[in-house]
Amino acid sequence: MSTEDIIKRILALKPNLTEEAVRELIEQERAKAAGLLTEEAAAHLVSSNLGINGAGERIEAKLKIADLTAGLSDVSLTGRVIHIFPSRTFDRDNNRQGKVLRLIIGDKTGSVVVVFWDDKADHVEASKLKPGKIVRILHGYSRERRGNIEINIGNRGQLFMEPMDAVEEDYPKLESFFMTPADIHTEGAVNLQGIVMDSFPSSTFQRQDGSEGKVGRLVLEEGGARINLVLWDDNVDEYGELEKGTKIQVISGNVRTSNMGNPEVHVGWDTAIKIIEKGVKPDEPVPFWTKIGSLNESMGSVNVAAMASQIGEQREFVRRDGSEGRVVSVLLEDDTGTVRLSLWDDDADKAAEIEEGAMIVVENGYTRSGFGGGVELNVGRNGRVHIDPEDFEMEIPEFERKITEIIDLREGERNVTIRGQLLDDPVQRDIDTSRGPATVTNFRIDDGTGEARVSLWREHAEAAMDLTAGAEIRLEYMNVREPFDGLIQVSSGSFTKLVVEKE
Q1: Phi/psi of residue 415, nearest 5 degrees
Q2: 65-174 domain in CATH 2.40.50.140?
Q3: What pLDDT is attached to residue 246?
Q4: What topology is assigned to 179-277 in CATH?
Q5: Confidence class of residue 229 from pLDDT cuts 50, 70 and 90?
Q6: 476/496 Cα distance (integer angstroms)
């Protein structure tokens, strides 16, 4: 087909174009090729860029990415290039070398990986294609890979760059294809953007095949939320020590649910990390500190600063796999409440350095349901515990011990502190319990807002017998029980303290 015939075909299918405009496009393509294209070849290229096939028919590429399913044999669509992965070569079973190149394109409905093989990969590399450009995929086929849909460009497939009938405004800007931590709620492939706020030491492990693996973690923040970025193997060495304040893009990460029930993004061999900027501060900083009163079960990446009120004894135990473990419980307190901190194994040894009244900082801890109910705070392998830190990078909040008024006591509350005056002399009894014989001392207390019935057990029972009606006391770390004879009950627990303020 001659150049003139191609121009006539274009004008018939593109009535909005003039002959002069088409000839200008042909000359532009010849100029791009530095004179290596004939006029006829350049005309064919312009025709293809306009979405017109060799038979003189306009090629429609109206399929949207959200509509893709596995098993489609003729996929044509248009989208903006989000990222281009470096090509790689490999050996086929027939000892011939193959080549593969992947890129990600997106439209208003989502994004998809497009895979080019052999000479098609060479074509993409030669084109000098860059992110942000609009491209058209013709005659690809779709398949499922690792739970996600991808488009493959085989022998029939084609890539056309910057099709002239594509409207720029119809395709989102490049930055809009990247989510923030606040946007991530479900598992699957994701493109993520965030600012590195922390990094944690990597650790090695042995795989089932005997090989050694490596894992590390970064904390990313943006959009008013944080998320853990989990690095594996070579990515640990390359990105595991990125400076705080480094803004990055994670392309083709994989969202998984952590053991704590929180989403986290994993970086694998097919994930790219792009450094955007350094020395960045988040526009909407997340409050660094979490108050104890705001803790609930299954929280991750929490930072708590609190006072050590009680330190338990170290306990040894044997795990299901036969290994030995150690644990120490420390009761932490701030002005909103108390929580039990469990220190495991090597962290348990740090408990010997903790004194009552010491400031404890738990960095990147997590919570879960504790033994006997309530919330338990843990450090874990990705967290840190600091004892009386003098140069901690974040200002440690000050607080006063919370005193709960009797009128505000609610059944089921644990480790509350109350203050009041004895209304009667304590009465001691010996009773049988499910744990064996025990001594309990009972009396009533009034703080001006109401009355409560107090039960002090075992070692606390004896200490109370020195009291008389009219004494003013403080009871720390009491547990609230169901009402008895119309009065709310408070009972001693493992951390309880009796303080006489006035006899």
Answers
A1: 60, 40
A2: yes
A3: 95
A4: OB fold (Dihydrolipoamide Acetyltransferase, E2P) (2.40.50)
A5: very high
A6: 5
